[in-house]
Structure formats: structure tokens, C-alpha cells
Amino acid sequence: MTTPHLGFVHRYVPARRADTPTLLLLHGTGGDETDLLPLGEVLAPGAGLLSPRGQVREHGMPRFFRRLAEGVFDLDDLRFRTHELAGFVAAAAAAYGFDPRRVIAVGYSNGANIAASLLLTHPGVFSGAVLFHAQVPLEPQEAPNLMGVPVFLTGGRADPIVRPAETERLAVLLREAGADVALRWQPNGHTLSPREVDEARRWLATWMREEEP
Ligand code: MLT
């Protein structure tokens, strides 16, 4: 639907398999709620998919939070949008009847950054996360408890937008919080490569087999 419902323009695709978690799909700058639906189906066939459109516009392009310049984030807006997105996930779980304790974030670029912000400031919203080309969105005021939360993180060795050192720093921050981080490097730049999608698919399949519903 293109009018906001539960606070966000979004798409929801119900699970076709009862034992699967719900993937929260978070697009990159300039994307929308339809962008990552095919990716979600590849990553976890039959899983429920919840895909909101970012509420901020940058030269007409949807994003999940404002930035002052490339890589320089508006932290007040980021905190507000992070909280707003957490509320949306809870409202959607109640409205659509999926289990809020089994939500896995799948984000690319700006979408991965707000997912990382949620992990760091609202631990408990996600039971796992797949973060493609993510960086540290903010330094949390309190150390979150992410003990045992599985996170698959990718970075591009030649990424000019999310620099490798930033992705590395995010991995350190998540690990310090107790998350079980699988960091995979790609030779590419900022684009999402078929190889990293395939690695994420295999990681997710293994983790979902181990997870007790
Ligand atoms: C961001 O603004 O979240 C990152 O710089 C990635 C991007 O959207 O370009």
C-alpha cells in the first residue's frame, strides 16, 4: 500500500512456512518498500517479509534517517527514527500476527545502518540481523546486551561510501556487546554482489536450522 499504515508505507508478505521468522527488509538510499522483497525471498524462502519505506526524503530519495553530509548523520533524527521503527515492528507484529521475538533485520547501506542503530539502542527488537555494507551509525549511550545475537555483516574492500574501517568498527562494537558476528569481506565497492547475497543465504539457512522456534 502507498498510504502509511501503522505509521509507515510498507509491504507485508505473510510467511508461507509456519516455522520461519519474519524478515524486516530495510532498503538503501533511494529505494522503497518493494526493493528488497525479491532479496528476502532468496534469503529465506517462505519467510514472512515486512518491508517499510524510509520516512525521510533526500532530494526526493527515501531514506531511514537524515544525514548532514555523506557519512555524517543527524543523530537526533537517527535516534527518533530508530525509536519510530521499533514501534512500527511491534505494531506490525500485533496487526499481522507474527512473533515479535523472531524478527531478523535485513538491511542494505542506509537500511543496514538503521538496523545497526536498532541493535545498539533497542536490543531485543531483532533476534538476528543481516547487514550489508553497514557502518557505526552512532555510539550508544549505554552498552547494549546483544549476548548471542547472530549478526551477518558484509563490507566492500573498495567501498567508497561505507569505508572498511567503519564496518570493522561496527563489528567490534557488536562483538563487545556480545553479538555473534560473522564478518565477510567482498572485493567490491558499495553495490550488493551476488556472492554476498549467497553467503548470507547460506549463513541464514544454517542459523535458522539451529534456532529453536
Ligand atoms: C548512510 O547515509 O546511511 C550511508 O552513507 C549509506 C548511504 O545511504 O549512502
Map the helices and strands.
Elements: E1 10-13, E2 22-26, H1 37-43, E3 48-52, E4 56-58, E5 61-63, E6 67-69, E7 72-73, H2 75-96, E8 103-108, H3 110-121, E9 128-132, E10 150-156, H4 164-176, E11 180-186, H5 194-210
Parallel strand pairs: 2-3, 2-8, 8-9, 9-10, 10-11
Antiparallel strand pairs: 1-3, 4-5, 6-7
Helix pairs in contact: 2-3
Bound molecules: D-malate.
Structure description:
It is a single chain. The protein is built from five helices and eleven strands. With 213 residues, the chain is of the alpha/beta class. The strands form three sheets. The protein has a seven-stranded mixed β-sheet, sandwiched between helices. Helix 2 (75-96) crosses helix 3 (110-121). The longest helix is centred in the middle third of the chain and has 22 residues, at 75-96. The radius of gyration is 16 Å and the shape is globular. The two termini are 30 Å apart. The mean pLDDT is 95. The structure holds D-malate. The site of D-malate (MLT) has 10 residues, from helix 3.
Main attributes of the structure:
single chain, seven-stranded mixed beta sheet, alpha/beta, two-stranded antiparallel sheet, binds D-malate, 11 strands, Rossmann fold, 5 helices
Helical segment count? 5
Provide the gyration radius in Å: 16 Å
Structural class, by secondary structure, is alpha/beta
The global form is: globular
Largest sheet properties: 7 strands, mixed
Tell me what the CATH architecture is: 3-Layer(aba) Sandwich
CATH class category: Alpha Beta
Helical fraction equals: 25-40%
SSE order: EEHEEEEEHEHEEHEH
| Strand count | 11
Q: Distance between the terminal alpha carbons, to the nearest Å?
A: 30 Å
Q: What is the spatial order of strands in the main beta sheet?
A: 1-3-2-8-9-10-11
Instruction: Indicate the CATH topology.
Output: Rossmann fold
The CATH homology group name: Alpha/Beta hydrolase fold, catalytic domain
Task: Please tell me the overall pLDDT.
Answer: 95
What hetero molecules are in the model? Answer: D-malate
